[in-house]
Automatic annotation (TrEMBL):
Residues 4-135 form the Phosphoadenosine phosphosulphate reductase domain. It comes from marine sediment metagenome. One of its GO terms (molecular function) is catalytic activity. This is Phosphoadenosine phosphosulphate reductase domain-containing protein. SUPFAM superfamilies: Adenine nucleotide alpha hydrolases-like. InterPro entries: PAPS_reduct_dom, Rossmann-like_a/b/a_fold, Sulfate_adenylyltrnsfr_sub2. Pfam families: PAPS_reduct. Signal peptide: none annotated.
């Protein structure tokens, strides 16, 4: 059994990643996952749901115990480039917990897909299209990480 889980933000890169996934995998293996940090535009959740319905794909919406604003109040400071607690606390930790709880030890080959592009940052430019999840804090329960948009430019994603 295989499950292809696409981290879907509702943006152009993760939408392009979904389209790449659908070129390679059957719909019944694909699941969209949206992490709601509580700091998104109000329309984002509705947009994500509409795309899932339009593509006839199941969607899971994950929410942390404390949303972004509650976490800022708890920590008494906003995330900074040097201390980026937002991604880890509000997205990666909740995703990994959900992934482990739903798929670990159940015989699934898990492919986790993210729509990041290499031209977005120096560290992302060093990634490979397929990565070993054992090296990543976010997806230890996965079999494979796939970045289908890694070598695409912003223009290619838009087109």
């Amino acid at each position: 059994m295989r499950k292809v889980i696409v981290n879907f933000s509702g943006g152009k890169d993760s939408t392009a990643a979904i389209l790449k996934v659908l070129e390679k995998y059957p719909k019944d293996e694909v699941l969209l996952c949206y992490q709601d940090t509580g700091a998104e535009y109000l329309e984002t959740v509705s947009h994500v749901q509409q795309i899932a319905v339009m593509l006839e794909l199941p969607l899971v919406i994950l929410k942390p115990e404390r949303d972004f604003w509650q976490e800022v109040e708890h920590r008494r400071f906003f995330p900074t480039p040097g201390l980026r607690w937002c991604t880890g606390k509000l997205k990666q930790d909740i995703f990994n917990k959900w992934l482990s709880g739903n798929f670990r030890g159940k015989g699934y080959e898990i492919v986790v897909v993210t729509g990041i592009r290499g031209d977005e940052s120096f560290s992302r430019s060093k990634l490979h299209e397929f990565e070993d999840p054992s090296d990543h804090r976010i997806v230890k329960s996965a079999t494979k990480l796939w970045y289908p948009c890694l070598y695409m430019t912003a223009k290619e994603v838009k087109d």
